[in-house]
Amino acid sequence: MSASMDGNEVAKGMRKIQSMLRKIVEEETEFTPRKDGKKVKVHIRCFIVQVGQIDTLKEEFACDAVVEALWEEPQLNDSTAEDIHWDDQWDPRIVFFNAVSLDRLEKQRVFFKGESGQPWVRLTMHVKGTFKVAMQLFNFPFDHQELKIELMSDWSDKHVVLCPYLDEKDAISTKTFTGGDEWRLHAHMLTEMGKTETEITGPDTIFPTYDIIISVTRRWTYYFWNIFVIMFLILLLTFSSFALDTGSLDSRLDVTLTLLLTSVAFKLVLAQRLPTISYLTLLDIYILAVLTVQGLVVILHTTVSVIKNKDAASLFNIVSSIVLGVIVVLCHVALVIYIAAIKRHPGQQNTA
Asked: Cys staple from 147: which of 184, 214, 231, 321, with CB 3.0 to 4.6 Å?
């Protein structure tokens, strides 16, 4: 009986300790609400220190940035920098919404007076990490991507609005870009104000968001010389099978099917360099078009082999090769025109 009572007392003591620890943690993580209840306009300014590697397969990019949040704080009218205890002051509760991992996050607050003497607070956040981005790859490898750092306040949009800081421009360092072999980093940046979707957070809890947009364009020459040109040469070699004797079906199919399998191998290699997406990229369409032409060549060779009249078979072989060749040339002209159009307007992305 005594042992049972001791066990109960120990259990009660453990529950009491757990309750106290939970209360301490909650008090430490609690944010001070706004005393005046007014909606706060938080101004955002960003300086991109370095854009790291951009991973197309994982749809991620590395970035080192300094983000500043500035807001007017009338409660500090009679205060000096030495008197302020920042743990007791209001905080915008800004989080990096699309961060996959953060290797560094340093925060520093500074109190200063505005032009008309009103008190302001500057929150400087130095962040370095990896961020998720939804890439639009329809025009791959001639694509233009918008890399976003998505900020969100944990206060609802009834209490906080995130907006750009107009007194100082956002800036980006292009000289420190480490992915220059595959991408071209643009010197301009865009920003976009928004709110969370009601489908995610519900209609009663909508949070303000602020997107910092970095523009990059893929350098397409590697894919042009190593895939487009190779596939084009394979396509030209496929047409060489029309020069073989119309009655030699085995030789014709040997050439065509060998080149067809080579094209399939290129397609499989390309699939390993792209994320799993539900639509075809421009390069996918080109390779599939080449496979289609090679498949048509196989059908034409089979058809000409069953024509008993040698003159008729020779005529069919010539006409079919010319017609198919004209179609291939026209398709390549259309491709060149389309590529020129998307290079002229790189910001306009096409989606499937």
From this structure: 214
